[in-house]
Amino acid sequence: MGKRLDHVIFEKLANLTSEPTIWWQSTWWSRGALLELAEACESVLRDGGFKPGCRLALLLPNSPIFLALSLAVWRIGGAVVPIDYRSGYVSLTKQLKHAEVFCAVTYRGKAGIVPLISEEGIPCVISGLDSPPELMPGRPSSESSRELAVIFYTSGTTGDPKAVPITHDNLMANISACFTHIETLTDDDVFLNALPNYNSFGFVTSALLPLVAGIRQVILNNFMPPDATMNVMKDAQVTIVPAVPTMISLLFGASARGFLPPRGLRYILSGGDSLPPGFFERARGELGVPLLEGYGLTEATAVVSLTPGLNKIKAGSVGTLLAGLEAQVRGDDGEVLPPTEEGKLWLRGASVAQSYFRDEQLTSARFKDGWFDTGDIVRFDEEGYLYLMSRESDVVFVGGFKVYALEVERVLAEHPAVAEVAVVGVPRSISGEIVKAFVVLKKGERATPKELIQFSRKKLSYYKVPRIVEFLNEMPRAGTGEILKRKLESD
Q1: Which of 21, 51, 202, 279 could form a disulfide with 31 if both were Cys (CB 3.0 to 4.6 A apart)?
Q2: CATH number for the domain that contains residue 474
Q3: 3-state secondary structure string across the chain
Q4: Which pLDDT tens digit goes with each residue over 106-146?
Q5: Whole-prediction pTM
């Protein structure tokens, strides 16, 4: 067991206190200023009765107070529970009750939820985004291990939220492995922290990784509008942008409108969803930088695999496994397959969680003998590069054949009129399911369902061809930009 995450970060902040560390609202904050805010939060928490093993809910956008409260909670020996503050009331209160939080902290923009949460017996206070709350009245709650750092609620693109407990060791293992894998980070780098920090990908890669490394970060509480974000990136001289494909697409649009990226921008780290065809070429042509694609899971802290270097990009691959992770490719009956065959990915390692929080049934279904069942269909090539074929829930069974939704989506995305596409299975009594595609067309473009079906017939086996094509103005999305297929299936 190495140093705790909070010990490492506090040591960084206490060293060279005048050095800039976070950019917030057009101003660089020094390490000392962030340290003072964290210590002020710690004092308020202790005065309110927060003890080791307690859990604090953060219903906040990306901000200095989000980081400071996390550091203060960890220093006391508790855990933070970041929750999407834009969630519906029912989902929000369900998660707060499940986590049995000491208190919830939100900001003035969501003041309307304070009485609603308080009616459920959960104390809820308002904080400034760069100043501590005045009081932190908590409630008694059961204690968890002091090793627990974060509980993330994740539903991915399907199902109800799952509570994933991540320890300090998990976080340090994942962050350290990212350092080793990327190899090109320098003290002069500046990260963009615009991915939602209530999501593990955003919190780990955009907020915690720079803090652990002593690298500067630019905090944005909203990526929109992208034109303004591009201006901020230029003003703060951002060099590395962790992003999801939706954000990258918006940066392309901003660039086309004349809002150019900073000259020092070195690369974009893409995760959270599969990159559409042509994004690698567009990134180099329109933004002048390479894309490093990765793959991650909340249950593995954040990052599972990543392109191992700027000169080691393989189109279609999500890179190689981070150090400290082991993988097996298994068949439908649980048998271990050769890695070059398609099958379900199982993982184990220092950054992989050991259970779900307070859900024995789901834990027993997904965690077995130290291994975690990701539910994703993958294969590896001879050099160890990982290829994501499909999410398990994205397999459509047509007449006894497996159809990977991702394969169909990639084909339809090659059509010049298609901006976005999502594929699901629709029940049919004879064939079991048929393939249905939801399509958003590019602005000013036209296409018919028949045209897209004919297009896919030239590239896909007959049973993989969509039988239904429905056009949408926009896709339903999670806060991280992922398309919510469960909403498409229910419509």
Answers
A1: 21
A2: 3.30.300.30
A3: CCCCHHHHHHHHHHCCCCCEEEEECCEEEEHHHHHHHHHHHHHHHHHCCCCCCCEEEECCCCCHHHHHHHHHHHHHCCEEEECCCCCCHHHHHHHHHHHCCCEEEEEHHHCCHHHHHHHCCCCEEEECCCCCCCCCCCCCCCCCCCCEEEEEEECCCCCCCEEEEEEHHHHHHHHHHHHHHHCCCCCCCEEEECCCCCCHHHHHHHHHHHHHHCCEEEECCCCCCHHHHHHHHHHHCCCEEEECHHHHHHHHHHHHCCCCCCCCCCEEEECCCCCCCCHHHHHHHHHCCCEEEEEECHHHCCEEEECCCCCCCCCCCCCEECCCEEEEEECCCCCEECCCCCEEEEEEECCCCCCCCCCHHHHHHHEECCEEEEEEEEEECCCCEEEEEEEHHHEEEECCEEEEHHHHHHHHHCCCCEEEEEEEEEEECCCEEEEEEEEEECCCCCCCHHHHHHHHHCCCCHHHCCCEEEECCCCCECCCCCECHHHHHHC
A4: 999 999 999 999 999 999 999 999 999 999 999 998 999 99
A5: 0.86
